[in-house]
Amino acid sequence: MAKEKAATPFDFAGLMASMGGPRSYTNQALYGLFPKTAAASAGVPAAGYGAIPLSQSALTKGAMGVARMGTRRLPLLAGGLQALGGDPIGGVGTAGGGFAGAALGAKLGMPFGPVGVAAGGLIGGALGGGLGQGLTRTVTGIDVNNPLTGPDISLGPIPLTPYAKTKKGVERAAELEALRMKELLPIMEKARQQQFQRDLIGTQVQMAGQLLGNIYPR
Predict the structure, then answer these.
(1) What separation in angstroms does the CA of 188 have from each of 95, 144, 175, 185, 197?
(2) How many C-beta atoms surround the C-beta of residue 156 within 10 A?
(3) How many of the other CB atoms lie within 10 Å of CB of 128?
(4) pLDDT in tens, 77-103
(5) Which SS3 state, helix, strand or coil, does residue 145 take?
(6) Angle CA(186)–CA(190)–CA(192) in degrees, nearest 5?
(7) In whole angstroms, what is the distance from residue 92 CA to residue 17 CA?
(8) 87: helix, coil or strand?
């Protein structure tokens, strides 16, 4: 009977070393994606796209610089999208609070290398963004579920608060109603005149019938 082949043990320690060591795949990938930013963070001359420095210290510093850059950009992007989606006050808070939170989280994660910087930045950005938008809405008295809250703030023709949006919507509705009535009034007046003529003719026919009845009684 053939002997069964022994199962190869999973090298967990080797996997962790490859992910977290100075020349880990994570560090090399981060450095290679944005070599100019990484080189500037490491204080070394910028090489070509994807070029990995020989120095482990430069590689780690560069990867951490890229991680910090990425986690700080995400809250700004989220705040911008939130502002474009119709919540500029909350978007400002998300961007500002998220940026500050990402910077603090990345700093706290520095002892754990680029992975710690990225994780700390993402968590800090998410927490800071939530706190930031809550703060800006509280200061301005805005409740996103109440269209009448907040001051009347607009940037040119663009309303920035729920109240300003509601006011703008009411004004537009009034303008549309006025335009509708302007178009309908001539039609309604014409119909009224035609109905008046029909009523007048009907009255005249009725009066003529009564007159004939009086002259030629049955």
Answers:
(1) 54, 42, 19, 5, 14
(2) 5
(3) 24
(4) 999 888 887 788 888 999 999 999 998
(5) coil
(6) 115
(7) 40
(8) coil
Q: Are the beta carbons of 70 and 57 closer than 8 angstroms?
A: no
3-state secondary structure of 208: helix
Q: Is the pLDDT of residue 4 over 80?
A: no
Helices and strands per DSSP (H, E), number in the chain = 7, 2
Give residue-wise pLDDT tens across range 48-70: 545 565 567 777 778 888 888 88
**Dist. CA 204–CA 207, nearest whole Å:** 5
Check: CB of residue 59 under 8 Å from CB of residue 42: yes
What single-letter amino acid sits at 59?
Answer: L
- Judge if pTM exceeds 0.70: no
pLDDT tens per residue across span 23-43 = 566 777 777 777 777 777 777
CB atoms within 10 A of CB 59: 23
